[in-house]
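Suppose a colleague, Dr. K., hands you the sequence of a protein chain of 382 amino acids and asks what its three-dimensional shape might be. Before reaching for any lab equipment, you can write down a predicted structure in token form. Begin with the sequence itself:
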Amino acid sequence: MSKGETYTKGKLRLHNCANFRKVSPYTIEAKLGMQTFSELRTLLVGYGYAGKTFHAPLLCATHGIKLTHVASSQAAQVKQQLGADIIVLADYETAVQLPDIDLVVIASPNDSHAPLAERALRAGKHVVVDKPFALTVKEANALTALAEEQHLLLSVFHNRRFDADFQSLQHLINSGRLGPIAHLESRFDRFRPEVRQRWREQAGPGAGLWFDLGPHLLDQCLVLFGLPQTISASLKTVRPDATTTDWFSVLLDYGHFSVTLGASMLAAAPSARFTLQAQHGSWQKFGLDIQEDQLKQGLTPADANWGIELQPGLLYQNEQITPYSTAVGCYQQYYTAIVTAINGGGNNPVPPQQACAVMHMLELAEQSANEARVVQIFAGRQ
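The predicted structure, expressed as tokens, is then:
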């Protein structure tokens, strides 16, 4: 995403691709007829926080992918961390059209996602785009249509589907153990009282907390429940020097139950990541999925204790409190599925149509906040 953003908390261990290889099993149910490659030569566009922390180590850890090129202005840092044989190009637009690239991964600033993805697709490349998919539903729909026309894979990196806590929540809901759902609250809070000089926290297209964290929370909700009936949103700027959204509360009404999505940059006290209320009990989870912190430390899916929760969720039922966590975090499964899909053996892990639905909800929340009203949602309205 940001070209100049760097990790500043603690030490970042050098990410040399040769050290990351690991096979991760992933269940695939259908076939996607695409051209087969023995190994996907891959270009990573952007070496800011997302490119460096998430995509580079996961790409290097995935069999069937060979990270050969990085588009970045930080050539020395890229080569130091990924290896001297990595080809680094400063011109993003030229890079996505290189003839010897099979897969382009776009982790540049949000406002460049759609134009770079379009150029890559027109150059015949399969494409992964970091969230948010684009800036508007119109852009997202156009990219989806172009990928279909070109017979190429287009996917969006909604990695929070592979969080351990979310997968435990999904398992619990599908089990029916707690009975009919009454309410789910999903929060992603931080305490950052000072506005940082980074594009995500400055006014501009695709900036602000709603476009940064909203896609994660919306995507998880849509995976669980599909589209709601209505949406009501409040998007605010609460820090004195902030110039874009840094607090939000969004209510999704599903008729017999509801979901609240929230995030704040001024949450100093611990808040639950998930709180599920149902007819036969509740489930609550504190703390974020561990994989992001592990990646920051230079760990990979090949390391011991990868993705294992430090704070299990708690089940409140029949006047008893018991730990309930059924899953291990598995970001590596995303790119394993990408390789399988491109090679014609399985499904796209996040089809662009699903990412378009997230964009649809992002826009409707902004409409609700701007007009201070509840907005009806229609499945075909995009």
